[in-house]
Amino acid sequence: MFQENMLQTPGPEFLQASSPCPAWRAPEVIERGRWKISLGQEPVEEFLEEYRRGAFDSASSSRALLAPERTPKLNDFSLSLRQQLLFGDGFARIKQAKTIRLSAPQQRALFLRIGSLMGRVMTEYGQLYPVHDRGIDYKEQAAPVSMTTAETGMHTDSSAVGALPDFVGLLCEEPSLAGGDSLISNALTIYHELRGSCPEIVNLLEGNYIRDVVTPGASRSLETLLLNTFPIYSSGRHGEGSTFRYMRYWIEKGAERAGLPLKPEQCEALNRLDEALNSPENQVKLRLGRGDILLANNRTLAHGRTGYTDRPGHQRQLQRIWVNLGR
Ligand SMILES: [Fe+2]
Asked: What is the DSSP annotation of 291-305?
């Protein structure tokens, strides 16, 4: 169903060991449109049959334990999606068949079912984590930017060294009035570009950075903070393959809290990286409608969203899922 692309050109260490998710530029990936995927009626009907039988009613873990064979068409769909995230463009926007209307609980159970058919659903924030404005200023207290209406900046999810989602997914339950568009950039393309044009920048991005820890319940001690140190681009550091891990705000907060400020050349490297991640050549912008799902590779792509305004009386609400492949 999806074309498997591999980076063919021998490159430096990061690219040689990299995940096969190919490098792309925004205009070509937008034109190709392979990431626009429809979820047909049959897999949803198959899911609904199990749902009505009560297969998803009890403890949430049963959703993950239910054998893939019980929903074979949805299983095939989810495995194709996994291929798209690993070997295709690295992201997918899924629109559901308009012929079937799902209730909010059915929608969430379907989203969770797709996630659990792709890999292990992580539970650091619960299996599904609601993303909406909680009136928190993330600059005033340690809290994820996802709890605000602010623009997030381009990033990968999770600043904790031991918690790395391979895939991040979002189910849109209520769109905003304005803004809140999803943004995707390919960190592999940017690595390749920077390695060729300014290798000294890449060397700095392959160095270690302390990240502030914001995962709920995680220790905020200085010792934990100092252990939460890893490069932005690395190979074999987080299991097999190459990984891009970046969240600028928490890198700056980590450096500040540790009393080890970033060096001017490191700040310059982050500026260059942000510039590349936000360039129209590299950034895909898309808008999720009600019921749409966005899934993205969290090791090779950066994602973000624009700031937004809520509809009066209707908060923009998404459900987030983290999926780990156990590699
Ligand atoms: Fe995110």
From this structure: T-EEEEETTTEEEEE
155 C-alpha to ligand 1 centroid (Å): 6
Q: Decide: pTM greater than 0.85.
A: yes
Splitting the chain (327 residues) into consecutive groups of 10 residues, what average pLDDT does each group show? 33 46 91 95 94 74 69 96 95 90 93 95 89 69 68 92 94 90 96 94 97 80 92 87 92 95 97 97 96 96 92 89 88
- Spatial distance between the Cα atoms of 43 and 81, rounded to a whole number of angstroms: 13
pLDDT in tens, 31-50: 999 999 999 999 999 999 99
How many degrees, rounded to 5, is the angle at CA 238 between CA 276 and CA 236?
85
- Ligand 1 centroid to 83 CA: how many Å? 21
| d(CA 171, ligand 1 centre) in Å | 13
Ligand 1 center–CA 118 separation, angstroms: 19
Least Cα distance to 316 among 326, 307, 324 occurs for 307
Question: Could you say which architecture CATH assigns to the domain 136-163+175-289+298-327?
Answer: 4-Layer Sandwich (3.60)
Say how many CA atoms lie within 13 Å of 179 toward its Cβ: 13
**Lookup result for tokens 């700095």:** 204
Residues with CB under 5 A from ligand 1 (ion): 157
Angstrom distance (rounded) from CA 235 to CA 240: 8
Helix (H, G, I), strand (E, B) or coil at 36: strand
- How far, in Å, from the CA of 138 to the mean position of ligand 1? 14
For residue 283, the cross-strand partners are 185
Residue 81 alpha carbon to ligand 1 centre in Å: 19
CA of 70 to the centre of ligand 1 (A): 31
* Domain edges within the chain: 33-118, 136-163+175-289+298-327
